[in-house]
Amino acid sequence: MPGTLGLAHRTLWWADHLALLYFLVLNSFYALLLMLSIPELWRNWRLADDEHLQRLLSSDALPALSLLVPAHNEEVSIASSVLSFLTLEYPRLEVILVNDGSKDRTMDVLIREFDLYEVPAAYPQTIPSATLRAVYRSRRHSRLIVLDKENGGKADALNAAINVARHPFVVAVDADTLIEPDALLRLARPLLLGTSVAAVGATIRVANSCTVELGRVVSARVDPRWLPSCQVVEYLRAFLFGRLGWNRLGGNLIISGAFGLFRREYLLAIQGYRTGNVTEDMDVVVRLHRYLRDNNIKAELPFIPDPVAWTEVPTSLGVLARQRERWHRGLLGTLITHRDMCFNPRFGMAGLIAYPFYLFGELLAPVIELGGYVFTLVGLALGAVNLNFALLFFFVAVGYGSLLSLWAVMLEELSFKRYKRRRDLLRLISLAFVESLGFRQLTVWFRLQAFWQYFRGVESWGAMTREGFQKKAP
Fold first, then answer.
1. Residues 62, 192: contact at Cβ < 8 Å?
2. Dihedral (CA of 362, 368, 374, 379) sign
3. Cβ distance 103 to 206 under 8 Å?
4. Which residues in 216-327 belong to E strands, given as ranges?
5. Radius of gyration for the alpha carbons in the chain, expressed in angstroms and rounded
6. Close Cβ partners of 370 (under 8 Å, ≥ 6 residues apart)
7. Interacting residues of 64 by C-beta distance below 8 A, sequence separation 6+
8. Which of 156, 311, 327, 457 has the smallest C-beta neighbourhood within 10 Å, fewest atoms?
9. Which candidate, 307, 86, 66, places its Cα nearest to that of 170?
10. Is residue 147 within a helix (H) or strand (E), and if so which, with residue range?
């Protein structure tokens, strides 16, 4: 028995110290991304203020864009959403809305509100998609094209829109995304800087409790409720230094499906979005990296922070659980599909750094975090580790992350200052610490369920119910 107890002590000691080392390395890498994001943020500030570039952005030098909008059962908000897209500040823009087999009155609302009339479907189906039932143009808005097709899912709807798009660059957005009026002008900035660009990522912010008028966020607010407000901090951390820092490492593997720009030529070359994948946005970026490397094409996939789109985040634990489980299940599927990239120098920084980070730092993080909590508590109870070690583990696993969240809030305040009220800033500062206690552990549990669901073969998205946006008071 003493020998067995000694073996258990040694096992717990090693497990605890390995978990501690894991979190120390992981959070230090996040700190590195933070440091790398600062010069990138400064560079984008300078470019945004450059007078010559501003003149170019208002000229015909800008490439034409096709805005791709998949929609399914959006009858309540579809008219205002489409109108907001049509009134974006961009000189040459077409809006291609895809009604993806809606079972409500989405198509009827579109026909009535935009005076649609059917035109011949004279478009090549370069990328396979579900059956196209009809193509419509608008008598009121020459920029608008509406595709009515059989249901095939978001990826399939985007593929149908890519086939129809006439312009060299496409922007994929969600139907319920609120895009800031000048966001497309800012998003197109990398296209004018003399380097080849394959895709451009932009910032997504939380719209819950913000005041919305005519499809625009006119006043940014932090939701007073705990669940959505924690996600405000989470999104700031993910976009302001998480993805911005990857610019310097050249291996960004995610461009948000809610708002991202792509060169259409490359999307056609990889046969568009892969259907049956619940995180089609990450999958298409990984396949773009592969295509560029396989064909020796030097093209960048930068993230820029100032083009902003707003989205509604979950306000209930049930919806949040389904969302995070789906995200992690999609991450698992994408990494398994492209497992040959791991530590493979043929794929450059995407294979040598980005893929291993998403494997060990994102995919396996909930498994190691839960194990670390359990091993530390059991080790503390059995005397395998002492209280000082347990406190050190807690600080590295939770406190270090809180400090990084605080830095993300400070970057927001020093740069964009979207939250004008002092109480919102104070709430964000407090949430930088609160978010790591409770909210983060909940998402760990939700993400763990993805492993079971993936190996069961589950491919569903799950219901994502929304509250709707807060309108401006009359």
1. yes
2. negative
3. no
4. 216-219, 259-263, 303-311
5. 23
6. 444, 445, 448
7. 92, 93, 94, 166, 167, 168, 169
8. 457
9. 66
10. strand 144-149
- Model confidence over 368-426: pLDDT tens digits? 999 888 888 888 888 878 888 888 888 888 888 888 888 888 888 777 888 989 999 99
Sign for the CA dihedral angle at 22, 400, 327, 370 comes to positive
Q: How many whole angstroms separate alpha carbon 422 and alpha carbon 36?
A: 28
Q: pLDDT tens across 170-217, in order?
A: 999 998 889 999 899 889 988 888 789 999 999 999 999 999 887 889
The pLDDT value given to residue 351: 93
Do you know the residue count of the chain? 474
> Which residue is associated with the tokens 């305040």?
413
Structure tokens, 379? 């080790």
Tokens of 19: 């978990």
Q: Which of 336, 202, 317 minimizes the C-alpha distance to 259?
A: 202
Edge to edge, the sheet with strand 211-213 lists: 216-219, 211-213, 470-471
Pairing of strands 470-471, 216-219: unpaired
Which of 200, 205, 214 is CA-nearest to residue 171? 200
* Six token digits for residue 400: 């270090």
Name 255's Cβ contacts closer than 8 Å, sequence gap at least 6: 199, 200, 201, 262, 281, 285, 301, 303
> Which runs of E-coded beta strand occur in 264-333?
303-311
Which tokens hold the place of 345? 């120098």
Calculate the alpha carbon distances from 428 to 15, 229, 423 in Å: 34, 8, 9
Strand partners, 211: 219, 470
Q: What SS3 state is found at 362?
A: helix
Which residue ranges in the chain fall short of pLDDT 70?
1-5, 48-60, 462-474
3-class DSSP state for residue 171? strand
CB atoms within 10 A of CB 124: 7
